[in-house]
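Appendix B.2, paired examples.
Example (i):
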Amino acid sequence: MPLAEFLTQVLRRLTVAGQPWQRQRPLRVVAGVVLGYALLGFLVVPALVRHYLPGSLRESLGLEASLGDLRLNPFSFRLEADDFRLAESNGAPLAAFRRLVVDFELSSLFRWAWTFAEISLEEPEFDLVLEKDGRLNVARILAALPADPDAASTDPEAAPPRLFLHRLGLSGARIGFTDQRHTTPASTTLGPLELQFTRITTLREQRGPGTLDAGLPAGAKLAWAGEFALHPLASAGTVTFSGLKPAAFWDFARPYLPLAPPGGVLGASFAYDFASAKGTTTLRTDAMRLDLRDLLLQKPGATAPMLALQRVAVEGGRFDLAGNQLTLGRVSLQGGRVAAALDPRGMLDWESLLAPTPPDAPATAPD
């Protein structure tokens, strides 16, 4: 049954025929208010957002946006949006998602805090580009936002607005990154990424647990599990990398190191404790472990490697940012081989790796 027809029937039931006019009027007023509020929330607001959002973003930031279905329940304060796309004026993608859910709770009135049962994103996509001038595309867009006149006078140590979020989730996320500073751009994609947080709040010294699982290039994986606090900013947990292949990221290092894509597979893990408050940042890591196997460094076109290591292992490392101290418990090397050669100028080939790399020549337009 269409929503408008349903609400009309409700109005008719509340205004029963045959009753005195004085008795019908209060019921009609209440029913009319409820009906108007429902129509406004269910139909009018979603239609206005879908109509004005693309034009507003185009005029203020020069961005192109599209939005599929938008659903708002004005009684439960639950918002759902589908198939959002955001792109630059030239069509370059910036962000997108398949589904957004924002579930606001009326308990905010009693908690004196903005309270959300859930904020979740399904299949979000973010495209970050480091442009030729060294600026991120997102930073350039943020710089175009209208300035907040009250931002300069805000005390950085002041308590943030009270917020309580029961669950924050990302599922199937993808992050693309492209470096355009060189003649041949380098690109990579991270994902799929799954992120879950519970009990996120700006209440002082309140931490909530979370997990992160992310796919990295060439089948590598990143996992995080720990706790996170917003006021003051703090986090503690464990981070694990597995199956990380340096060759998968070599396009980003190629302009700076005259080497062929290196061989090797890296695994690493560590526990950490981070905090930032009153202008002071502390970071301590413990239980550091690193396992690098089959490392191979070789110059392009060379027949023999400059460095070959069967295995490099580090166990029990620690790091303290405040004391600038790094301690390694045990380091072991297996199956190592190092080679060096002189070029016609009498320079070791290893020295050429440390020499400054000239910037790429600017690309010329075709005739």
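Example (ii):
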Amino acid sequence: MSKKYNLFISHSWAYGDAYEKLVKMLDEAAYFSYKNHSVPKDDPIHNANSAAQLREAIRNQMNGCHAIIVLAGVYSTYSKWINEEIVLANEGFASGKKPIIAIQPWGAEKTSTFVKENADIVVGWNTKSIVDAIREVGLTPA
């Protein structure tokens, strides 16, 4: 039985198709188990009354995670909340800093420099590379 990783997948809903493809890849990965702690599009977290309330809600989602996965498309550079999630992951939690895994979108020629500079590891759009990175830099599940 493989260990179950708690993952927070940072993404932009404007580019939800890449997120959905990534989740499908992880769901179908052999000998890999995970729980998705991302913020779903229809989650009430989006109804937060202020940016501070939303930030705290995202922080709570990340708290028990073993790794933060960020899709490193160039759009990430211009997303306030993706950048905020990277800052949160780097600020540390009781268990320490959350490892950040950047995934370069398939076929993308340009990627976010900010995401790559803050990542513990950068991988391509490949299930094996992504799962290997989670196992390599992710905090070890109990």
